[in-house]
Design brief:
about 230 residues; mainly beta; Jelly Rolls; 5-stranded antiparallel β-sheet; about 10% helix
Amino acid sequence: MIKQLTLTALAAFTFTSAQAADQDGWKSLFNGKDLSGWKSNEEVPGCFTVENGELKVSGGRAHLFYVGENGDAKFQSFELKMKVKTTPGSNSGVYLHTRYQAVGWPDQGYECQVNSTHTDPKKTGSLYGVINILALLEGQKEPDGGRHIKVPLAPSKDGEWFDYDIKVEGRHITLKVNGQVTVDFTEPEGWDPAKELKNMPGRKLSEGTFAIQGHDPKSTTYYKDIFLKVLP
């Protein structure tokens, strides 16, 4: 009996230690209560709300920028992970290496697409406009620009939470959806997005913060468990 209890206690200790190790270096960016540390550009007022511990994005085009405690958050190499849920016809995205912008689609940085069933053929897991995960509707043409990876369905499903992992190490960007790599991209030396891409001159690495996108009036998406780990 004593031996059994000892083994049980050891197992519990090992599990607790593993949990602690998992949190090593990770920082929560969203407290599940309010938008502390975030700043909406209010292009559509009320687009970002907190409900049941989740960030709800709904109502039209607006962007929510992570500004941190001092209002000047910016990062270079990092790993960002979160849980995301789409609804039918929704469209959203997560920008990296961007900066606060009062109106319009952010000019600076890359967008990591969130879209399961919206009519835009670029689906979840795309590095928008650069490497596009395409699920084309019948009769729909491939968009111009970027590299295209064709799939029958988006790697995310409406109504189901999925894990989104976004990692930048130097010039290397990796995107994962539910643990599966969708993008493995190294920005070439001398990369000039004004020449390589269509109407996206700011798609390049430098440094900056993150932004969550509200896309259109019919779009509703949810985010939670947003964690950041800064890399050397």
